[in-house]
Amino acid sequence: MKVLLVQADLCGRREPIYPIGLSYIATALKEHEVRIFDPNAAENDLSKLEETAASFKPDVLGLSLRNIRLITETGRFILYEDQLRPIIAVIKRVAPEIKVIIGGSGYSMFPEQIMRREPDVDFGVFLDGDESTPELLENLSSPEKVKGLYIRKGDDIIYTGDRSMPEFGSLPIPRRDLLDITKYFGRPDAIGVQTKRGCPLHCVYCVYPYLAGYRFGLRPVKSIVDEVEELQNKYHVKNIMFVDSIFNVPQDHAEEICKEMLKRGLKVRWTAYFNEKNVTEEFMLLCRDAGCFEFFFSPDSYSNKTLKMFGKDFQTKDIIKAYKIARKHKGIIMRYNFMLNVPGESALSLARMAFFILRAKIFLRGNLSGILVGRPHIEPHTELYNIALKEGIIDKDTNLLQPVIYSYPGVGYLDPIMKLLSLMSKAGKKLLSLAK
User: Fold this and answer.
1) One domain, residues 390 and 249
2) What is the pLDDT of residues 187-214, one digit of tens each?
3) Are the C-beta atoms of residues 273 and 295 closer than 8 Å to each other?
4) Fewer CB within 10 A of the end CB, N or C, for the chain?
5) Helix extents (H) in 265-374
6) pTM for this model (two decimals)
7) 120: buried, middle or exposed (CB in 10 Å: 19+, 13-18, 0-12)?
8) What's the average model confidence in pLDDT over 14-40?
9) Which residues contact residue 39 at a Cβ distance below 8 angstroms, ignoring those fewer than 6 apart?
């Protein structure tokens, strides 16, 4: 069977992100003839997609919807249908009878809702599709046999029932030969490698544990480093990102990856998300020596009260500890993510966060690659959703397909402090430039 897999996310950025999820699905479809098309790597020229479909003549279209919405560099939100519907329309012009399957983490957040909104979609693959997708292709005439699917039956949407997550550690290295990987060399974090799936942490805004499981499925260290070595030697990749929810939990697994990369003498530079709780000077130096060019920390808040309400498993002292290690050593480059108006926010907690941001901008200097400050989105299947319900910010009929941003009730008086935070950030940049 001929299967055309298409990345259905409009990137919203200048440089595309490699669709690793589609690579895993393509690898699982070993009994079929598969091609991958990424509109983002084709400058969103859907005429190229039409040409590909016309020449390939696929029997099945597989759509990966990773994000429900994206924000562009200009601050504009792009909703999923802005990309999905034109892609389906193009394919349907070439192959009106083609079977359309949709999957991906964005889809799995709203599976039935999206099926009802998109009548051209025949099947929805709920959660991981490494096993259910090939099973579906073997049972297109009787899809009810396959667990983990949403099926269109006339005007009805049928769910075939839950299935267990695949054993991630036993999956093969994903194929990289179905796309021109050089198209993704523009961003140093564009090409991803997964060391694990799932997450046992409890950040209140994060839907990832629901999507990938509440326990880690670890890959063997050898398999991970084999993949990195293949990317370096076969595809000449120089930069990757370990795209786990958190790279250093469990920390011994991360340490073994670094040691194996050093043992093999790999020259690939990499970045990842880190958890502050367990980092040590020895560990951060090990990561740096193994090629880590940027440590991405997402404390999201700064005071112990708001960290606890946000579901974090570390405290302010842990944020400061990692910051001090970076100040001490050349080549340990930090990037931070913080959020405003989080549960339990106060003028004092916001001021303390503002002071830390200013201090980091001034004193980390060349050891700081950036600080992102945003606001948390309310997503289904998260504790923040339950908090927002209790606080009356949303109700059960609120359409979360549209962006809904959480703001702690009664903190309107903090607006002047937020403006001060912005001014302090700009002042920090100016002081940094003068110091250079």
Assistant:
1) yes
2) 999 999 999 999 999 999 999 999 999 9
3) no
4) C
5) 281-289, 304-309, 316-328, 347-363
6) 0.93
7) middle
8) 95
9) 6, 7, 10, 45, 46, 49, 83, 87
Length of the chain: 436
The answer, yes or no, to whether residue 427 has pLDDT greater than 70, is no
Name the token pair of 14. 């200048």
- Which of 142, 159, 176 is the last residue before a domain boundary? 159
Q: Are residues 341 and 403 in the same domain?
A: yes
Comparing CA positions, the residue from 269, 245, 267, 248 lying closest to residue 257 is 248
DSSP string of 148-168? Answer: SEEEEETTEEEE----PPP-G
Assess whether 429 and 371 both reside in one domain: yes
Backbone angles phi and psi of 204, in degrees to 5:
-70, -25
- Kindly report the backbone phi and psi dihedral angles of residue 266, in degrees, each rounded to the nearest multiple of 5, phi listed first: -70, 145
Print the domain residue range for 418: 188-435
Letter for the amino acid at 264? R
79: pLDDT strictly greater than 80: yes
Question: Alpha-carbon distance 276 to 317, whole Å?
Answer: 9
Tens-digit pLDDT profile for residues 254-307: 999 999 999 999 999 999 999 999 899 999 999 999 999 999 999 999 999 999
Residue 174 within any structural domain of the chain = no
Q: Cβ contacts of residue 4 below 8 Å, gap of 6+? A: 34, 35, 36, 37, 52, 53, 56, 58, 60, 61, 62, 91
Cβ distance 405 to 378 under 8 Å? yes
Q: Name the amino acid, one letter, at 194.
A: Q
Number of domains into which the chain is organized? 2
Looking at the fold, whether 283 and 427 belong to one and the same domain comes out as yes
Q: Which run of H or of E encompasses 338?
A: strand 334-339
At 171, the amino acid letter reads L
Tell me, letter by letter, the H, E, C secondary structure of 247-260: CCCCHHHHHHHHHH
Q: Is the peptide bond before 119 cis (omega within 30 degrees of 0)?
A: no
**Same domain flag for 196 and 296:** yes
pLDDT for position 338: 96
Query: To 5 degrees, how large is the angle CA 357–CA 360–CA 365?
Result: 140
Nearest by Cα to 8 from 89, 68, 84 = 84
- For residue 272, the one-letter residue type is A
Rounded to whole angstroms, the Cα distance separating 44 from 209 reads 31
pLDDT tens-digit map of 150-172: 999 999 999 999 999 999 999 99
Written as six digits, the tokens of 112 are: 């039935």
How far apart CA 59 and CA 98 sit, in angstroms, is 6
